[in-house]
Amino acid sequence: MAKFSKIFLVVAFATLMLNATIPIVHSQATTIVGTYQPYIYIVAMPNPVQVNRPTYLGGFFDCPPPYPVSWGGEPFKNIKIEITRPDGQKETLTIQKTDEVGLFGISYTPNQVGTYKVKAIFPGQIMPIPDTRPPGSWIRTVGNWNFLPCESKEYVLTVTEQPTPVIEDTPLPQGYWRRPIYAIHRLWYSISGNWLSIPPNNFASSTKAPETAHIVWTKPLALGGLVGGEQYTSHSYHMGQAYEGKWVNPIVISGRLYYMEYGHGHSQYYPDIVCVDIRSGEEIWRINATGRGDPVKVQLSGGGAAYGYWDGYPQLSFGQVYYYESPNQHGAFAYFWCTGGLGATARWDMYDAWTGDWIMSLKGVPSGTRTYGPNGEIFIYVVNLARGWIALWNSSAAIPRAGPIGTDAWQYRLWPGATIDVSKPYNWTVTSPTGVKYSWTVNPYSWNITIPANLPGSVWAVDNDNMIVGSNLGTTYYSYNPWSVWAISLNPKTRGQLLWLKNYPAPPNNITMQRIAVSFKDKVFVVREKETLKYYGYSLDGGERIWGPLDLSRFVFDMYEPQTAIAYGKLFICAYGGALYCIDIKSGQLLWTYEATDPTGEAMYGENFPLKIGTVADRKIYVVTSEHSPTNPLHRGARLRCIDVDTGNEIWSIRHWSSVQHSTYVVIADGYLIDCDAYDLQIYCYGKGQTLTEVSASPKTVTEGSSVLIEGKVVDLSPAVKGTPCVADEDMSSWMEYLVKQFPMPNSVKGVRVQLYAFAEDGSSTFIGEVTTDPLNGGIFKLLWAPPKEGTYIITAVFPGSKSYWDSYASTAIGVTSAPLEAPTYATAEQVAENIEPIKSTINAIQLIIIALALMVMVCLCLVAYD
Length: 867
Prior knowledge:
The protein is mainly beta.
């Protein structure tokens, strides 16, 4: 029903504004200063409606309330909706009050088939006009106005047994798709999630994810790879790990990738921001840091020590898609934010995600725990545990609307070129086109509440409108005795209430307790003993232990830098020991273990290569090998690995040293995985590639009963490997390493399957057969086929796609003629010469016989004559 109410609000409000009568009265009185006859209307949506299915009864007045509700005015009140059912019985629904423009509505479910009669009744109301200052006040006489009673025309609602028509949802695409997505295709939200920042618990929930190591495109990020030359032997360029990250805070919004590119070799100096198409890697635009306003002061530090300051610029930090809805506006707006600086120079710079243009800046943004609100607004929870208070800073409250009241208050506006101090409430003034100034107070904080003072530790995790969890545990080398965890309610009804505080005795023998993960969905938080690698699960409902200890101490290097992800009710843990553990987060049961084995020992971390969490998406978890500060030459065993979350089986892997370090994770959006490979400092995009199928047949015309040769090929159109043969999914990793990462060509590679069909001119179709391409011979396929009868045929080759490629097809045509009648055979000169002598001999013999017979006849005649 929500969609009916929204449509109704938009249409009714527009009609209201067009038809409102605006009398200008210049008299003044102390009691009733004027009378106004309003008109009221009501409709049902949908109408007709199926019995026992809801419809929305929506109504409106011909005018808004005369004095803005946002300035303390009254809405219209106590509207009755009188319904007469088909059996003649009546029922009455009551609307306590309208909204600011006089709209009202309620959901109603009819339970009888037939005709309902609906009427809206307004009892009348005295409406005070305290002054004429607000621009939304359309009556210009101060005093009490009498709005007379009125009722709508009787509205007929038809209820039937027939189902209410609905618009069928467009199914998810099975083939290649691009941005923008046509807004009608609503179900596609589930595969088109953005990557605005690292998602909660490293779970990208609204996207497909690559099922093979197919590389779509690459793009150099900086000088990388082997330096070359005798002087440097096997050493490579600096990869950017250990505080100098080159691949930091990438963002994806609506199929566009935004990232920083450093031109001076260090991450602090004047990076460009580059925007590329996620599907092609094609650069759309870039902006230079030096063109983004004044520099800010940034502290040089390392290992916890401060070394001074330098002038830098706010750097790319996160994206934002803000959905705004009011009676005037409905829709989303996309931005990216660059943040940085210390003290008075600290600044957030806001940019348009489409053009890269700087819009405005905010200074004085508080530090705290940043999350996204339900509409994409930026929340910062500012917590003072010592003094006992929590405040919610809200970006949507910090930026002023077009005006303080009326329709201006419903218009989302930005202020290009402005720099606003949003550290505390401030006064904002705008001037109307007629020169009238309006001033109002803008409060960047949505609320500020008290909590019990002196709670131990710091904020651990936040769940909007649910709870905030804190602890005195850390992630490093020490813990308190007792160690503590607490929860504060963020439910609007109980906000600020201490839900529970638990103090747990520390283990003996200087064992360090560490915080590991929190899942609000599963109502569990997890901690561990660092030295023994034992894990424990506790309930978020009260802090009681629900499972553990779970001993994961097989690989001692797992003590260092544990990383986690939570998805599908599973907790994933990995660290430098090189094992990925999957645990049922509610029961603590170890479901499976995956090991990144290192048989050579080259990585020098025990039996395995170290692992870090990439991202979880599409029931797959991607893990990578990376380190805090790797030695150079780099070891040669790093891989990007895709693991099935349900079985722990490896789906695919490829050589790839991830730049995941220092709060950057593998990016997944729109079905593509993007990461920087430190082996060559190129950005790699993994995902399905577009393809081109070609087909031909020869000869073009044959006689019935003869065969044609059908041949063609299927090639990859991905920018990284354009024009190369497509290969089978199981050989994709070695094929991509050969084509893109300079490894030798594999000795054997399987091709892809192609289906061949023939379509006769009478409309009949024939499945000719299935063939497999030969990648090591250009990706060709071939097949001899004898058409069954005369006529013309369209031969179509269909590549149905695979886990690595999108589908494609191509067609050609042939003709088949009937077999001709057999022509007479003539003897050759040689054949005549060969046969003429026997004929002559036969003729000569016959001639002798004839002569002999003639002589005999003559002798006989002579004898007869003699007698």
